[in-house]
Amino acid sequence: MEIINKYFPDLTDRQKQQFAALNDLYTDWNSKINVISRKDIGNLYEHHVLHSLGIAKVIHFRPGTEIMDLGTGGGFPGIPLAILFPESHFHLIDSIGKKVKVATEVARAIGLENVTTCHCRAEEEKKMFDFVVSRAVMPLADLVKIIRKNIRKKQANAYPNGVFCLKGGELAHELLPFKHCSEVMDLKNYFKEEYFNTKKVVYVTVS
């Protein structure tokens, strides 16, 4: 938890309690359903929770914003973002049912009332959202093609509606189709731990 307080010092007591509860919840669930590499569960807060919150260093979702987390797995980045932005709504989807179960149960256990979950493929989701967030589930071109139908036209945030993806490594080729409507932010500019040296937030406008 120290690493979350370090970069997000203005959390409410409720948010601190919710973040603190994630350790036992994910450790317990991970022993039954492998949603985080067993070797990596000890790095939960740095590699998963703080990494998810990298998006919050780039955009502050306004109250009422609706966000879909595509390929959420056990709830990343959706659950950490939902804790941080209690007045925005997060819809977490994944095609693997047991992973959605973990995300659903974790959200319920910590009392997140701004989270819904769905066991489905992104192609099947018909609802409209302001943004889609994701952790490197597929190449950007494929992602944008699938979720274009889900991005509403009406704007309400500092960034135009679109996609925020957590990515790593070399992205030049992947970003070629979006060179006029994308932005790349290095997480090493926000987080000093070595893990974030190659991690990025990629934003693409979807119109």
Would you give an account of this structure?
By secondary structure, this protein is an alpha/beta fold. The chain contains seven helices and seven strands, in the order αααβαβαββαβαββ. 33% of the residues lie in helices and 19% in strands. It has a seven-stranded mixed beta sheet with strand order 3-2-1-4-5-7-6, with helices on both faces. The protein starts with a helix and ends with a strand. The model has no long low-confidence stretch (mean pLDDT 96).
**Uncertain parts:** none
Structural classification: alpha/beta
Q: Please give the order of strands in the largest beta sheet.
A: 3-2-1-4-5-7-6
The proportion of residues forming helix, as a percent range, comes to 25-40%
List how many beta strands DSSP finds.
7
Q: Give the distance, in angstroms, between the N- and C-terminal Cα atoms.
A: 38 Å
Radius of gyration from the CA trace? 16 Å
General shape: globular
Overall residue-averaged pLDDT value? 96
Number of helices: 7
What topology emerges from the helices and strands here?
Layout: H1 2-7, H2 13-32, H3 44-53, E1 66-70, H4 78-84, E2 89-94, H5 97-109, E3 115-119, E4 131-135, H6 140-147, E5 162-168, H7 172-175, E6 182-186, E7 199-205
Parallel strand pairs: 1-2, 1-4, 2-3, 4-5
Antiparallel strand pairs: 5-7, 6-7
Helix pairs in contact: 3-4
List keywords for this structure.
7 strands, seven-stranded mixed β-sheet, 33% helix, 207 residues, alpha/beta
Condensed summary:
The chain has 207 residues and is α/β, with parallel strands linked by helices. It has helices at 2-7, 13-32, 44-53, 78-84, 97-109, 140-147, 172-175; strands at residues 66-70, 89-94, 115-119, 131-135, 162-168, 182-186, 199-205. A 7-stranded mixed β-sheet has the order 3-2-1-4-5-7-6, with helices on both faces.
